[in-house]
Amino acid sequence: MRRRNPLPYLLILPSFLLAAAVIIWPVYDLVQIASNDVNRFGQLRGFNDFANFTALFADPNFLAAVGRTALWTVAVVAGAILVSVPVALILNSDFYGRDIARVIVMLPWAVSLTMTAIVWRWALNGESGMLNSGLRALGLIDTNIQWLASASTAFPMEIAIGILVTIPFTTTIFLGGLSSIPGDLYEAASLEGASGWQQFREITLPLLRPFLNIAIVLNTIYVFNSFPIIWVMTQGGPANSTDILVTHLYKLGFRIGQLGQASAVSLVMFALLLFFTIVYVRLAMREERAHQGA
Amino acid sequence: MKTIWQKIALAGVSLAALTAAASAGTVRVTVAEYSSKTGPYFAEAEKAFEAANPGIDIQFEVVPWDNLLQKLTTDIAGGSNADLSIIGTRWLVDFVQQGVAAPLDEYITPEFKGRFIDTFLTPSIMDGKTYGLPIAASARAMYYNKSLFEKAGVSEPPKTWAELTDTAKKISALGDGVYGFGLQGKEIETDVYFYYAMWSYGGEIVEADGTSGLDSQAAIDAAKLYKALIDEGATEPGVTSYNREDVQNLFKQGKIGMMMTAPFLSGQIKAEAPDLQYGVAPIPAGPNGDQGTYGVTDSIILFENSQNKAEAWKFLDFLFSTEWRVKFTVNEGFLPVQKEEAADPHFVNDADLKVFASLLPNARFAPVIAGWEEIAEKTSNALQSIYLGQGEVEATLKAAAAEANTVLGK
Amino acid sequence: MSKKLKRSIIAWLLLAPLVVLVFFPFAVMFITAIKPQTEVLSPHWWPHEPRWRNFIDMWAATNFGQALWNSVVVSTFATLGAIVISIPSAYAMSRFRFRGREAYRQFLLITQMLSPIVLVVGLFRVIASFGLIDNIGAVTFVYMAFNIAFTVWMLQSYFATVPKDLEEAAWIEGASRFQTLVKVFLPLVTPAIAVTAIFTFINAWNEFVIALTLLRRQESYTLPIQVFSLVAGRYTVEWHHVMAATFVATLPVAVLFAWLQRYLVRGLALGAVK
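Structure tokens for the assembled complex are given below, as produced in the milestone run.
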């Protein structure tokens, strides 16, 4: 029997304690609240047979929000990745003004999401918004578009803004990944006469894959839980038509005072994310192994 | 290992004890931030009070209004709420039912009670006990743009909703991004904007038998009226993207003919659009001459778990002296809640405020029911689908009434 | 050289739509910030006369300096703390094979999955029970703890891409593990640490929900809630001040980006080691 080396455990201990401290107690609290009858101030009134969960699944608004959250998450994450890969490739190549370009691409990140959303809401105002006034000046439209009046324009706009603010994070991850690919691989490929596209498919993409996986998993988690954009711009309205799970949860918990149901939503969201991540990580790892085998 | 944890726990306890000790004689007050003048006003009040009452330390927490309810919820859940807090009087029921708010009757002298205008104190009284003092009050009236009226050839503000429809169409016909009636279709008080018409048609939010009045004929007529205004282009386009501030902004820009809102718009117009020619008129009457305005108060309450009730009361007594009331009400553009305050020249000589004050006898307040916010939310949602044309008026209102009845327990 | 010029033109053309989209909100912010109050609501783009004084007025009216300082303190210490604590963990995970390594990785990921909005109720109770409400230190600690999972994750995936050859060479020369770590390994991964630090700093800089719940008095507000309190639920919003404040609040981060840019570029050199 080999004695186990305690060093790695000692090394991870501080981070474990910290991460656990802010998670475990609140989660315990959450489970308590979700499975109890609870008043609007979070004072428990006794176990209630999961009534909070049954109420939730009987609520058409909740079910609609689940579907919309899926759409929101997939659209924003996919959109951000589709834009970020080429952007990262460009920013990784050598051209004049690259440093400035990188700073510009990172800029949306410098503003808190809440403020970005407030500025966009201000700019998207139908009658006095600067977007309409800009589009009119360019002759692109002649009547004002009421961007936030209905979900058919508001939700796509929210998704677009979601993509825009997700790009900096995603691009940075990819840039980090691209920087770890040695240049001589491309040189060798060029000598063998591989086209740019072939180089991308055969060298860049496989080596970028772990970073792609990180980007997908982390972005999915963040976007799924992202609150400010939709809250500030439409508060999930009109008539709940842009509600996603977090905004629904916020209304339940802090508007209507159903803390029990709100906590139940939170746990359902947690379960959904957990399910997604497990499935994704499994698939991604299988694929990675398959690649290594090939 | 155990000892370490015990030490940590002890440290925590002693820390908590320390803060508790420090808080003897300290009165913490949570206040809503109504405007950029709110913070400085309370800072000034704090200084003046502490100078006059050495030994009592006042601490203010100025909270953005939109987050006030959330903050109070977490505070109370965590047991670290302040001693006093401003709340929307419509939330008071929940606070009283959960035993969070303390009755003030043992402190209130007849003289103190006599300072208030009854209309505004009544909503804070429940089961014969006073749980809050009205600190901010407003009512609603109709603002109209005189220049647009002139251009459209209308000389008088409309007295009935039929006249309003007519006038609104005439103003919208002027074109050039000008619209007759500013209709709010988003966020807080979307439902209230609808009640103006509903009350005029003789409807009630909660009927005598305790059920929702949303499926009454009055509600249906009012919704049809608003829908017709939207369809005929008499309102600004895309009403569901305009909250109260957005509609007010349109009014300040001179882009809409009429809108209902609170007295504070007058002050904003003076600062931001001083050239605007506007007037204030009562909310139009319905076919049977019914009229109604929305009265709303915010109350300051004392928490049941406060350790410094006597000191807190002392501060309330100070805050509700005429001098400090006048300062607050003028700053924020609210209505005076006290008799002596109302006699101040600031209010007596203000033509706009006179209109508001004259409407008070017809003022209705949010009904005193638990779950009021939920009903407001459901009503607003129903209205939004009607305004968007996604739901047929009667069916949508009936469904909303059924949901409201569930909340009401009927 | 002309080849690079051609490439540059193509690169900028491709980036152009994104650049426009990125600058649009900044343009809105900046132009609204310099408008006189009476013109703020008009949709025309350029004000009749730019009102630079707005920035000075805003600074005083919004208690900006204090909030800026609070944000700098909170973000800096949260970042430093998170990085210092994460490096050993990430090092352990990328350089040791030990039981529970994969499980720990997954635990870290799971901690990221809870929606902060409701977590905040439980968190608030814990902080309140220690009497640490309205304490900037407590907020710093919470930010640090919340970011740990992320920093460990990022660092260990960057660390894993660093080849072991150099460290092994150092061992052979008789250097201890600790010496190797400090002298060989850390210099190699500085870019990765810098990048991760940026992430953490920005998360802390922009964090909103926790600060809003845990901080009480204006004197302890961080920038996002200070700016937000100018907008949320007031009966009237001084948009020119709000926009000026937002604009100024982004400057420190923009400067940080520009400065740390070099590290990002040096990250490229990392690949050369392999």
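The longest strand of chain A covers residues 44-47. The mean pLDDT of chain A is 86. Further analysis is deferred to the final report.
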